[in-house]
Structure formats: C-alpha cells, structure tokens
Specification:
Number of domains: 1
Strand content: 5-15%
Strand order of the largest sheet: 1-5
Helix content: 40-55%
Structural class: mainly alpha
Length: 220
C-alpha cells in the first residue's frame, strides 16, 4: 500500500542533509559496534552476534549513504541493501574503495583462519572480491534483525570495506576528519565548528533511484 501511494503522488517533501551528519551517525553506531565486539571477545558471548552484525551493517550502510550525499549535493538515498548502495556510488569512489579494500584484506589477522574454515565447510575458497562480499552481506541489516526466521547472511570482509569507505569520505571531504576522528558533532576544525545544516526541498514526480534505490531529490 505504501508503494502505491508513493507512485501516485506528484510532489513530496524531502530533506537535503549535510553529509557530515550522516558520517556522525555512522561513527556513533560503529562505536557501539566496537563496544559489542569488545564485550563479545572478552567473555566469549556468542549471543552478541546479532547486535554485532546489525550495528556493523547499519554503520556501513551510513558510510555509503554519506558518500552518496557528498557526491549528490546532499541528496539522500534510501534502502538497506549494501550492494545496491555501493553500486550507486560514483565509479571513482567504487574504484577507490576497492583498491583500499584489496590492500587491507591481507592484513586481517583472522583472514587465514576464516578462509580455511570456509573451504573446509564448503569445499572451495571464499570469493573475496568486493562485489561478492557485498552481495553476500547485502541484506545483513534486515536478516540479522530477525534471526528466528533462520535466514542469515555473511558479513566477512565488511570491516575492511568500512575502513576503505571512511578513507574515501576523508579523501573527498578532508574537513570531515574531525568528525571521523572525534565522533563528536562539536569537534572544531581550527576555530570553527563543522557546519551541520539541513534544508527542505520539494520533489517533483519522485521515481525510484538508479539501480534499485529510491532517491530523495531536491533543488540545487
């Protein structure tokens, strides 16, 4: 029913968001993810797997959405599918993230163990290409929220993609380093706080965005 209403409406009010706000949200959620991981490692509590993956997937989703907003003048993109969100980034950003991911992956201390375990169970080595990793983890945020349904997804490799995405954000917006490093909305660059602003815009005839994501568009 909601989809029908969206298709028949001719105008819609959307929010044009300062990408720094999205980055701040991603950093805060990832901080929570790190606390869960620390607790999980300290006490060996495997019951924390669900919140670990859910917060990790949501943080990665927001890093992708931050990049999209940077590249589209604050326009936002909807959806949780990590592969679709990645596919909607510019070719330059996808290439930069891929290159950094390929550099980081061999440095993962648990990679060899995970590869052996995967190969022992499946019979073949895991496909670690970034596109394959994101396809496998595409719906992690949604699936791991409902573990009782018995349909889960992989999330291996997404830590490196997260770090590569954060680096790409700072490459495009060096002034965002203060937000990334401090995880504080009031961290100053020099003497001035980051400009975290919003504005409202009217959308005419909204249509689904490219490659499967509805895009909220506004006036320049």
């Amino acid at each position: 029913m909601g989809k029908t209403r969206r298709k028949t409406r001719t105008t819609q009010v959307a929010t044009i968001v300062d990408p720094a706000r999205i980055l701040l949200a991603a950093e805060r959620i990832w901080k929570g993810n790190e606390l869960i991981a620390k607790q999980m490692n300290q006490v060996g509590d495997v019951t924390l797997a669900e919140p670990l993956v859910v917060t990790g997937a949501l943080a990665l989703e927001l890093y992708f959405k931050c990049l999209y907003a940077i590249e589209h003048n604050g326009r936002t993109i909807r959806g949780h599918d990590l592969y679709v969100l990645f596919s909607n980034l510019s070719q330059e950003s996808r290439a930069a993230i891929k290159d950094e991911y390929d550099r980081l992956l061999p440095q993962n201390p648990t990679r060899a163990v995970l590869r052996r375990a995967f190969e022992k169970q499946v019979g073949t080595p895991p496909d670690e290409a970034i596109e394959s990793v994101l396809r496998g983890a595409a719906n992690a945020f949604e699936l791991w929220r409902y573990p009782f349904e018995g349909v889960l997804s992989s999330f291996t490799g997404c830590l490196e993609i997260r770090d590569a995405s954060r680096l790409r954000i700072i490459q495009l917006k060096p002034e965002y380093a203060a937000v990334r490093d401090s995880r504080s909305p009031w961290k100053k660059i020099g003497e001035e706080p980051l400009p975290l602003t919003f504005k409202r815009a009217t959308i005419i005839s909204p249509e689904p965005g490219p490659k499967g994501c509805p895009v909220e568009e506004g006036e320049e």
